[in-house]
Amino acid sequence: MSKNTTEADVAFIQALAELLNKNELTELSVKREYGDDDSLEVRVIKQANVVTVAAAAPAPVYHAAPAAAAPAAAAAAPAAAMPEDPAQHPGAVTSPMVGTCYLAAEPGATPFVTVGATVAEGQTVLIIEAMKTMNHIPAPRAGTVKRILVEDGTPVEFGAPLLIIE
């Protein structure tokens, strides 16, 4: 497959993920034929709750407060003022695709980033495996990694928050 076909496949998968959400489906399976011995099989599965991914965060304290109590807690403790939904945080790095998230290049290797690490714009912060292709996810901006919201080997869906860079 050419590079354009791969980019088209990513766009196709993103469109399937949007279709899944828009129609409140939990699973979608499609086979796309390109020609002799060349096809793409995609199975998009929506996890029951995206918070499951965020619940694996090293500091789940930010999710403990009920939504109604969040503004009062933010006024009382500005240092802990984090949005209830990590995807809404201005420093959130979200998944550009459906796949499996890896924090290191290979099992047992040093992670690309850790909480407190300083990253440069464009630096690889993690990898998402989709269709047996390892996709390096770059930091969209320079800053400090404040939270890592996924664990190594965790399945993620399109738009799921992966980490926070401030």
From TrEMBL:
It comes from the Bacteria. GO terms for molecular function: acetyl-CoA carboxylase activity. Signal peptide: none annotated. InterPro entries: AcCoA_biotinCC (IPR001249), Biotin_BS (IPR001882), Biotin_Carboxyl_Carrier/Decarb (IPR050709), Biotin_lipoyl (IPR000089), Single_hybrid_motif (IPR011053). Keywords: Biotin, Fatty acid biosynthesis, Fatty acid metabolism, Ligase, Lipid biosynthesis, Lipid metabolism. This protein is a component of the acetyl coenzyme A carboxylase complex; first, biotin carboxylase catalyzes the carboxylation of the carrier protein and then the transcarboxylase transfers the carboxyl group to form malonyl-CoA. The keyword Lipid biosynthesis applies. Pathway: Lipid metabolism; fatty acid biosynthesis. It comes from Paragemmobacter amnigenus. The keyword Cytoplasm does not apply. This is Biotin carboxyl carrier protein of acetyl-CoA carboxylase. Residues 90-166 form the Lipoyl-binding domain.
